[in-house]
Specification:
10 helices; alpha+beta; four-stranded mixed sheet; 48% helix; 202 residues
Amino acid sequence: MTFRLHLGQVAARTLAEFPEEVASEIYAVTFRIDSVDQDPRFPYLAIGYNTETEVARLLAELGPREAWEARWNYAYFPPSGLEGVRITGHDPQHDPAGAELHRHEAVEQGLWYEDDQAEAEGLSEEEQEERDERLAEEFHELCVDVARELHAEGHLVRALGRPLPVILYDMFAPDEMFALTRAANPPELVAEFLSEDPEGQA
Protein backbone atom coordinates (compact mmCIF):
# COMPACT_ATOMS: atom_id res chain seq x y z
CA MET A 1 0.00 0.00 0.00
CA THR A 2 1.18 3.52 -0.76
CA PHE A 3 1.23 6.34 1.78
CA ARG A 4 -1.24 8.22 -0.42
CA LEU A 5 -3.69 5.33 -0.42
CA HIS A 6 -3.33 4.93 3.33
CA LEU A 7 -4.19 8.60 3.95
CA GLY A 8 -7.25 8.34 1.72
CA GLN A 9 -8.55 5.22 3.42
CA VAL A 10 -8.12 6.67 6.90
CA ALA A 11 -9.83 9.91 5.86
CA ALA A 12 -12.84 8.06 4.46
CA ARG A 13 -13.15 5.92 7.59
CA THR A 14 -12.82 8.97 9.83
CA LEU A 15 -15.95 10.56 8.36
CA ALA A 16 -17.91 7.61 9.69
CA GLU A 17 -16.47 8.27 13.17
CA PHE A 18 -18.04 11.70 13.42
CA PRO A 19 -20.77 11.54 16.11
CA GLU A 20 -24.20 10.80 14.66
CA GLU A 21 -25.85 13.32 16.96
CA VAL A 22 -23.98 16.23 15.36
CA ALA A 23 -23.86 15.02 11.75
CA SER A 24 -26.68 17.31 10.65
CA GLU A 25 -24.92 20.25 12.36
CA ILE A 26 -21.59 19.78 10.62
CA TYR A 27 -20.96 22.41 7.94
CA ALA A 28 -17.27 21.76 7.23
CA VAL A 29 -14.70 19.00 7.48
CA THR A 30 -11.35 20.27 8.75
CA PHE A 31 -7.87 19.14 7.71
CA ARG A 32 -5.22 20.50 10.07
CA ILE A 33 -1.79 19.90 8.54
CA ASP A 34 0.96 19.63 11.13
CA SER A 35 4.13 17.73 11.98
CA VAL A 36 5.49 16.04 15.07
CA ASP A 37 7.71 18.52 16.96
CA GLN A 38 7.44 20.83 13.92
CA ASP A 39 9.76 18.50 12.02
CA PRO A 40 8.80 18.29 8.31
CA ARG A 41 10.06 14.69 8.21
CA PHE A 42 7.09 13.71 10.38
CA PRO A 43 4.00 15.30 8.79
CA TYR A 44 0.51 14.36 9.86
CA LEU A 45 -3.08 15.29 9.18
CA ALA A 46 -5.67 15.86 11.94
CA ILE A 47 -9.15 15.27 10.47
CA GLY A 48 -12.11 16.90 12.20
CA TYR A 49 -15.19 19.05 11.78
CA ASN A 50 -17.02 22.15 12.98
CA THR A 51 -20.73 22.65 13.66
CA GLU A 52 -23.40 25.32 13.26
CA THR A 53 -24.02 25.19 17.02
CA GLU A 54 -20.40 26.12 17.69
CA VAL A 55 -20.60 29.03 15.27
CA ALA A 56 -23.81 30.29 16.90
CA ARG A 57 -22.14 30.13 20.30
CA LEU A 58 -19.18 32.14 19.05
CA LEU A 59 -21.34 34.74 17.33
CA ALA A 60 -23.20 35.31 20.60
CA GLU A 61 -19.82 36.28 22.08
CA LEU A 62 -18.17 38.01 19.13
CA GLY A 63 -21.10 39.66 17.40
CA PRO A 64 -22.29 39.50 13.78
CA ARG A 65 -19.36 41.55 12.45
CA GLU A 66 -17.13 38.57 13.14
CA ALA A 67 -19.28 36.10 11.21
CA TRP A 68 -16.51 34.98 8.86
CA GLU A 69 -14.01 34.60 11.69
CA ALA A 70 -16.42 32.56 13.80
CA ARG A 71 -17.19 30.25 10.92
CA TRP A 72 -13.91 29.84 9.09
CA ASN A 73 -10.94 30.99 11.18
CA TYR A 74 -9.19 27.98 12.69
CA ALA A 75 -8.16 30.12 15.66
CA TYR A 76 -11.78 29.83 16.81
CA PHE A 77 -12.30 26.17 16.03
CA PRO A 78 -13.31 23.86 18.91
CA PRO A 79 -11.29 20.69 19.63
CA SER A 80 -13.36 18.77 17.07
CA GLY A 81 -12.10 21.11 14.37
CA LEU A 82 -8.61 21.85 15.61
CA GLU A 83 -7.43 18.63 17.23
CA GLY A 84 -9.70 16.55 15.04
CA VAL A 85 -11.16 13.10 15.47
CA ARG A 86 -8.33 11.11 13.92
CA ILE A 87 -4.65 11.72 13.16
CA THR A 88 -3.00 10.07 10.17
CA GLY A 89 0.43 10.43 8.63
CA HIS A 90 3.98 10.13 9.93
CA ASP A 91 3.00 10.06 13.58
CA PRO A 92 4.37 6.87 15.16
CA GLN A 93 2.11 7.22 18.19
CA HIS A 94 -1.21 7.78 16.41
CA ASP A 95 -0.56 6.10 13.06
CA PRO A 96 2.34 3.62 13.11
CA ALA A 97 1.36 2.16 9.72
CA GLY A 98 1.33 5.61 8.14
CA ALA A 99 4.67 6.48 9.73
CA GLU A 100 6.28 3.37 8.27
CA LEU A 101 4.86 3.97 4.80
CA HIS A 102 5.89 7.63 4.74
CA ARG A 103 9.43 6.94 5.92
CA HIS A 104 9.84 4.14 3.36
CA GLU A 105 8.74 6.38 0.49
CA ALA A 106 10.87 9.30 1.70
CA VAL A 107 13.91 7.00 1.73
CA GLU A 108 13.11 5.81 -1.81
CA GLN A 109 12.86 9.42 -2.98
CA GLY A 110 16.19 10.29 -1.42
CA LEU A 111 14.56 12.79 0.93
CA TRP A 112 14.96 11.03 4.25
CA TYR A 113 17.88 11.67 6.61
CA GLU A 114 18.64 10.86 10.23
CA ASP A 115 19.97 13.60 12.50
CA ASP A 116 22.88 11.53 13.72
CA GLN A 117 23.86 10.50 10.19
CA ALA A 118 23.48 13.77 8.29
CA GLU A 119 26.92 15.07 9.21
CA ALA A 120 28.60 11.73 8.50
CA GLU A 121 26.94 11.66 5.08
CA GLY A 122 28.11 15.17 4.33
CA LEU A 123 24.58 16.55 4.22
CA SER A 124 24.72 20.31 4.70
CA GLU A 125 22.10 22.30 6.59
CA GLU A 126 21.00 23.81 3.29
CA GLU A 127 20.48 20.35 1.79
CA GLN A 128 18.52 19.25 4.85
CA GLU A 129 16.30 22.33 4.52
CA GLU A 130 15.72 21.58 0.84
CA ARG A 131 14.61 18.06 1.69
CA ASP A 132 12.38 19.39 4.46
CA GLU A 133 10.72 21.80 2.03
CA ARG A 134 10.09 19.06 -0.52
CA LEU A 135 8.60 16.77 2.12
CA ALA A 136 6.31 19.56 3.35
CA GLU A 137 5.20 20.47 -0.17
CA GLU A 138 4.50 16.85 -1.08
CA PHE A 139 2.43 16.35 2.06
CA HIS A 140 0.36 19.45 1.32
CA GLU A 141 -0.28 18.08 -2.18
CA LEU A 142 -1.30 14.70 -0.77
CA CYS A 143 -3.77 16.33 1.63
CA VAL A 144 -5.34 18.25 -1.26
CA ASP A 145 -5.61 15.01 -3.24
CA VAL A 146 -7.26 13.22 -0.31
CA ALA A 147 -9.84 16.00 0.07
CA ARG A 148 -10.59 15.86 -3.65
CA GLU A 149 -11.09 12.13 -3.40
CA LEU A 150 -13.57 12.53 -0.53
CA HIS A 151 -15.65 14.61 -2.95
CA ALA A 152 -15.09 12.57 -6.11
CA GLU A 153 -15.76 9.18 -4.53
CA GLY A 154 -18.86 10.36 -2.69
CA HIS A 155 -17.47 9.71 0.79
CA LEU A 156 -18.71 13.02 2.18
CA VAL A 157 -22.24 12.55 0.89
CA ARG A 158 -22.43 8.96 2.12
CA ALA A 159 -21.19 9.82 5.59
CA LEU A 160 -22.86 13.19 6.15
CA GLY A 161 -25.77 13.19 3.71
CA ARG A 162 -24.62 16.14 1.60
CA PRO A 163 -21.54 17.68 0.00
CA LEU A 164 -19.51 19.78 2.44
CA PRO A 165 -16.30 21.79 2.09
CA VAL A 166 -13.00 20.47 3.37
CA ILE A 167 -11.01 23.30 4.92
CA LEU A 168 -7.24 22.78 4.80
CA TYR A 169 -4.91 24.77 7.00
CA ASP A 170 -1.40 24.66 8.36
CA MET A 171 -1.03 26.93 11.36
CA PHE A 172 2.65 27.43 10.54
CA ALA A 173 1.92 28.42 6.93
CA PRO A 174 -1.32 30.42 7.33
CA ASP A 175 -1.04 32.13 3.96
CA GLU A 176 -1.46 28.81 2.19
CA MET A 177 -4.88 27.89 3.57
CA PHE A 178 -6.83 29.69 0.84
CA ALA A 179 -4.83 28.13 -2.00
CA LEU A 180 -4.98 24.67 -0.46
CA THR A 181 -8.71 24.86 0.23
CA ARG A 182 -9.45 26.25 -3.23
CA ALA A 183 -7.53 23.42 -4.85
CA ALA A 184 -9.28 20.77 -2.76
CA ASN A 185 -12.95 21.66 -3.28
CA PRO A 186 -15.61 22.41 -5.89
CA PRO A 187 -15.82 26.23 -6.14
CA GLU A 188 -19.42 26.49 -4.98
CA LEU A 189 -18.64 24.85 -1.65
CA VAL A 190 -15.90 27.28 -0.66
CA ALA A 191 -17.15 30.60 -2.05
CA GLU A 192 -17.87 32.00 1.40
CA PHE A 193 -14.56 30.81 2.79
CA LEU A 194 -12.64 32.31 -0.13
CA SER A 195 -14.43 35.66 0.21
CA GLU A 196 -11.67 36.71 2.66
CA ASP A 197 -8.82 35.54 0.45
CA PRO A 198 -6.33 38.46 0.34
CA GLU A 199 -5.38 37.42 -3.18
CA GLY A 200 -8.93 38.20 -4.27
CA GLN A 201 -9.27 35.08 -6.41
CA ALA A 202 -12.46 33.71 -4.88
